[in-house]
């Protein structure tokens, strides 16, 4: 049994040793029976997608199929491993492997998108600037002493300053 996935979820599938669901933010594995309660207290394990490093998927074949959620520090179970029946991150199934494929695909998509967002440097596009915002401008720089003397010389050449006015203004700039 499965629910129809959106881009990241929700999807779920019920198997032989439990149920797995993914809502786009976290993966929840619920296991029933005394064995499950002995393993994890409540029989439910929830892992945020940020902690997931991968999904190991073995479709149904001669035996049962298996989906295992990998988190940092875990390894995928060996082929024909019996550990999956006691692993809180694994659900075995005999039928409905397409339901489990949908769960796997939704998780894989979320992992790929997370990687793409991380490597691009942005988790989302930057917000637009507020109304009326303008980028900062550089303060006007004061002209250098040489530029100021050059301006005075041009004023004198064009007849706007006399020789005496030029000499006084130049001496003032030079601090004399």
TrEMBL record:
Residues 20-102 form the DUF4429 domain. This is DUF4429 domain-containing protein. InterPro entries: DUF4429. It comes from the Bacteria.
């Amino acid at each position: 049994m499965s629910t129809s996935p959106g881009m990241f979820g929700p999807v779920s599938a019920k198997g032989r040793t439990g149920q797995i669901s993914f809502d786009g933010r976290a993966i929840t594995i619920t296991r029933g029976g005394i064995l499950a309660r002995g393993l994890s207290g409540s029989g439910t394990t929830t892992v945020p997608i940020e902690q997931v490093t991968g999904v190991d998927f073995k479709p149904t074949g001669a035996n049962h199929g298996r989906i295992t959620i990998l988190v940092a520090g875990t390894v995928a179970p060996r082929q024909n491993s019996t550990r999956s029946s006691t692993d809180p991150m694994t659900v075995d199934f005999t039928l409905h492997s397409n339901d489990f494929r949908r769960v796997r695909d939704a998780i894989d998509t979320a992992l790929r998108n997370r990687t793409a967002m991380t490597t691009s440097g942005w988790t989302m596009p930057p917000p637009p600037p507020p109304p009326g915002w303008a980028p900062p401008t550089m303060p006007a720089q004061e002209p250098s002493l040489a530029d100021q003397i050059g301006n005075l010389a041009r004023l004198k050449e064009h007849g706007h300053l006399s020789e005496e006015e030029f000499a006084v203004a130049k001496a003032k700039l030079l601090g004399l």
